[in-house]
Every structure is written in C-alpha cells, then in structure tokens.
Design goal:
single chain; five-stranded antiparallel sheet; chromosome
C-alpha cells in the first residue's frame, strides 16, 4: 500500500480453506496497524504489543495460530451441527470464540439409548482440541459399568479427535446414534 503493506491470512482446517483475514500495517517508527479484519476476541493488541516492534514474523505466526485455531473450532462446531444435527438432542451451544461448546447426544448400545451431555472447553486458544472435557449422562438411574466405560471412552475421544471425527468413530465402533431424534 502507499503507507506500508497489507497481509492476508487465510485459515484452513483438515485441508479445507476457511476464512481469510487482513492486517494493514503502516511502515514507520513505530510500526502500527492501520486497519484489520481480525475478530475482536482474538488478542490482537496483546500479540501486537509483544511482537510487532521486535519480530514481525513471530507476530504474524502467533496471529495465524490464533486465527487457524478459531477457524478450526468453528469448522468442527459447524460440521457437528450440519452433519450430525439429527443426532443432537437439542441445540449445540457455543460462544463466539467457539472455545466453549456444550451439547446433548444419544448413543444406543445393546438396545438401550442413553443421552449423554458433553461440555468441551478450549483454554488454549491456539488449539483445535479441547483442554477440558466433561461427559455426563441425563437421568437419575445409575449407569451400568459398560455405559460408564462408554462415557469415559467418549471423553477420551473428544480430547483426541475433532468433533465430526468423534461422531464418525461412534458409527464405526458399532454404536448407533439414536435415530428417534430425527
């Protein structure tokens, strides 16, 4: 640009090109941001204060990390809603940063269907996998040991795989998501 340069940051998750953002930088002492399209919940001011004047490559790298992680979390939540909406009991609840997700889903095993409630929290905003996962079941009856094993295995899956892959793996393991919700 006439004042400096504009950087376009394109985000992606699992090979899917997602959103693009820009940062228009003015080249003068001190280096400063003129315009940008970075979402307000990304800590741009903090990253800028830390790296913009001393290491522009690291500034852009950190910004890319936050943006890619946000786009990846949003992509997973969107895929869960679009591809597995029929299996969710109620809405997927999420905040704008997609770092807190909660939903209820039903899994059928041995002819019995139990609704599980999942709460996923992403404390590290530069990651696409949750740092805290809680899976509980709805109802007052105690779970059988096999259901408790399922609940624990679901927690482990949510820690280790993207949301849509978790639901795909439920189907592969022979678990059936409850179709009565359709």
């Amino acid at each position: 640009t006439s004042r400096g340069f504009c950087v376009c940051i394109s985000t992606a998750f699992e090979g899917n090109l997602l959103d693009s953002y820009f940062v228009d930088l003015v080249i003068q002492k001190p280096l400063r941001i003129h315009h940008h399209s970075i979402p307000v919940f990304i800590p741009l001011e903090e990253i800028s204060a830390k790296y913009l004047q001393t290491n522009i490559q690291h500034f852009l790298f950190c910004l890319c990390e936050y943006l890619n992680a946000y786009a990846g979390r949003k992509y997973q939540a969107d895929r869960l809603q679009s591809d597995f909406a029929a299996f969710l009991a109620g809405p997927l609840r999420r905040n704008s940063l997609c770092n807190l997700l909660s939903f209820t889903y039903k899994v059928e095993l041995q002819g019995q269907s139990v609704p599980f409630c999942a709460r996923l929290r992403y404390k590290d905003l530069t990651t696409t996998l949750p740092t805290d996962v809680t899976v509980t079941y709805q109802g007052t009856d105690a779970l059988s040991p096999s259901w408790e094993e399922q609940r624990a295995s679901h927690e482990n899956l949510f820690f280790s795989k993207p949301l849509h892959q978790v639901f795909t793996s439920f189907a592969r393991k022979g678990e059936k998501l409850d179709m009565s919700l359709v």
